[in-house]
């Protein structure tokens, strides 16, 4: 039997992590980079559904993806600036990539300098070569 005080502490901790994650997301949204803005615009033009700065709770920490594309893509897009070339950040990126993959998500990292020429239609190919858009079926009465 689980004790009530343990459940309370777990819920309280979860709410705290969610609050910190939300606060960090809001900070990142205010400091959107020009490359993220360009990529966001490209997704909007292509009418691809996405969530900008999507947070995921991981143990005692949280991870924030630049772009999350839900089903049918189930993909994370990270726009990587120069600091992603440091050894420390490369290790953190590997951990993040593994976290996403463990949850069945694909990961695509795009360098800042590649954003402008990136073809968003490529995302469909990356998601699945057999991608077929979901169509509504009219039910016969």
Q: N- to C-terminal separation?
A: 50 Å
Q: What is the helix/strand order? A: HHEEEHEHH
Largest sheet: 4 strands, mixed
| Number of helices, where a helix is a run of at least 4 consecutive DSSP H or I residues | 5
The low-confidence parts are 4-8, 129-141
Q: What CATH architecture do you see? A: 3-Layer(aba) Sandwich
Structural category: alpha+beta
- How much beta, percentage-wise? 15-25%
- Summed up, the domain count is 1
| Helical coverage, percent range | 40-55%
What is the number of beta strands?
A: 4
Radius of gyration over all CA atoms, rounded = 18 Å
Kindly report the average pLDDT value.
Answer: 76
Give the spatial strand order of the biggest sheet: 1-2-3-4
């Amino acid at each position: 039997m689980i004790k009530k005080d343990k459940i309370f502490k777990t819920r309280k901790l979860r709410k705290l992590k969610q609050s910190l994650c939300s606060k960090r997301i809001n900070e990142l949204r205010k400091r959107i980079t020009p490359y993220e803005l360009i990529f966001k615009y490209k997704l909007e033009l292509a009418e691809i559904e996405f969530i900008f700065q999507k947070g995921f709770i991981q143990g005692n920490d949280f991870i924030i993806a630049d772009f999350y594309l839900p089903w049918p893509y189930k993909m994370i897009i990270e726009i990587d600036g120069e600091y992603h070339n440091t050894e420390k950040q490369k290790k953190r990126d590997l951990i993040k990539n593994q976290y996403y993959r463990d949850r069945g998500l694909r990961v695509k990292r795009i360098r800042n300098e590649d954003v402008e020429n990136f073809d968003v239609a490529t995302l469909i190919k990356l998601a699945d070569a057999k991608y077929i858009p979901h169509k509504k079926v009219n039910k016969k009465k």
